[in-house]
Amino acid sequence: MVELRLPELGENIETAIVAQVLVQPGNHVRRDQPVLEVETEKATLEVPAVDEGTVREVLVRAGDKIRVGAPILRIESTAGAAVVASVAPVVEPIAPAAAPAPERSAPAVIAFPVPALRRRPEIGPSVPAAPSVRALARELGLEILHVPGTGARGRISRDDVKAHAKRLLAGGASGAVAAVAVAAPLPDFSAWGEVETEPLSGVRRATAKAMAAAWAQVPHVTQFDAADVTQLDELRKKFNAREEARGRKLTMTAIVIKMVAAALEKFPRFNASLDLATEVLVRKKYVHVGVAVDTERGLLVPVIRDANAKGLLEIVDELAELAARARERKLTPDEMAGASFTVSNLGGLGTTHFSPIVPWPQVAILGVGRAEHRAVWTNGAFEPRSMLPLSLSYDHRAIDGADAARFVRWIAEALEQPLLLLVEE
Asked: 120-185: which CATH number, 3.90.25.10, 3.30.530.20, 3.40.50.720, 4.10.320.10?
């Protein structure tokens, strides 16, 4: 009998919610077949079986909150005891496993990996703090780097995090960029009529915390502009007519990502992060562009890595795949980490200009609205032109208004000259 346990799901992720149990006792499962679907704050992940066998017992149910290493089900493997014994456990159990029935032998503990989850190098200095302490800091909207540690060799405890939060609330923070999101109690709305409550999803909770922290930490300014995309739209429609049979569609979002990636190379200050604790601007030599995707679970932001080194059609294909995975709840945490700049396109919903919130620790985000026809004075006469609204929100501590104007105008002019786009496979 093999006892399967929840594997590691990503850095600093200690627990997950069981979204769906995909098997029942008596089911025969194949190797790599999904047996469980779990939800973290930012992603829904499928947990696969590592061997073929028959499910004998399911130890969790939908809605359960379980820790990494917790047992999830028991499988009677068809590979035989020798094969089972050869698999070494890689995750230590968090809590003692349930005692086996007298007639059963003690189950072998197998912690199986999720191949799609890749570890990435940690950015910035390491901080002596346990994962649970880091999680508490994130929940309070604090940057763990700015919390003074009172333990041995500066190790940070939960009490250190709470004390730092209290100092900030009392106005005692000196030069700290951390912010605390304080939830004020609501009035009793039932006094005026019938109400109902809806639990926040993991995605919504994570979004609320991130946006509150970003708004509190970043002095926001939004620069508005518009690009004449009349010619670009004509070329895009011709391209899509040609590629329709292949199932490929050239979207405005993909084109904007390509132009943004080029702009970030020309204006590296926008591809950076501000660290006031050490008084430096961290310039990133990689260009990873996050793309906001609207899903039924809330906003998810997958990342197109090294967008500056990819051709337009590579970006088209990768964007389509990531957006589909986001809507199918199959994105992994790594696929949503490491963005150095973000693009949010609300044009499909009919909006024009808006003020997106800068996702700290990035210093800027570009919002794209729906192109609309306007009468534009050109060559001594008014002509109908297709104008694309652009909204650049930025951190005024790191970026001056003149630099923001130059950056968004460069993108607008690049979109207005479609022949500069290199459409390469």
From this structure: 4.10.320.10
- The helix/strand count (H/E) of the chain reads as 8, 20
Residue 229 has a CB neighbour count (10 Å cut-off) of 22
pLDDT tens per residue, range 124-155: 445 677 777 877 777 676 777 778 888 877 78
Asked if 293 contacts 35 with a C-beta cutoff of 8 angstroms, the reply is no
How many whole angstroms separate alpha carbon 129 and alpha carbon 147? 10
Contact present, 51 and 77 (Cβ < 8 Å): yes
CA distance 365 to 289: 10
Amino acid at 230: T
Q: Write the Ramachandran bin of 155: left for phi over 0, alpha for psi from -120 to 50, otherwise beta.
A: beta
CATH for the stretch 2-111: 2.40.50.100
What end-to-end distance do the CA atoms of the chain give, in Å? 50
Tokens of 33: 């077949």
| Mean pLDDT over the full length of the chain | 78
Q: Say whether pLDDT at 343 is over 50.
A: yes
Question: Which region among 38-52, 218-232, 356-370 has the lowest average model confidence (pLDDT)?
Answer: 38-52
pTM of the model: 0.61
Amino acid, res. 169: L
Spatial separation of the C-alpha atoms in residues 144 and 352, rounded to whole Å: 37
The answer to whether residue 165 scores a pLDDT higher than 60 is yes
Domain with CATH 2.40.50.100 in the chain: 2-111
Closest CA to 221 of 349, 389, 403: 403
Above 70 in pLDDT, residue 341? yes
- Catalytic, 373? Answer no
Q: Which SS3 state, helix, strand or coil, does residue 423 take?
A: coil
From the list 105, 117, 31, 19, the residue with the least C-alpha distance to 60 is 19
Structure tokens that stand for 43 in this block: 């992603």
Q: For the chain, state the CA radius of gyration.
A: 25
The whole-number pLDDT of residue 183 equals 55
| DSSP 8-state code for residue 115 | T
User: Active site residue: 220, 288, 353, 396, which one?
Assistant: 396
Read off the pLDDT of residues 23-32 as tens digits, 9 standing for 90 and up: 889 888 888 8
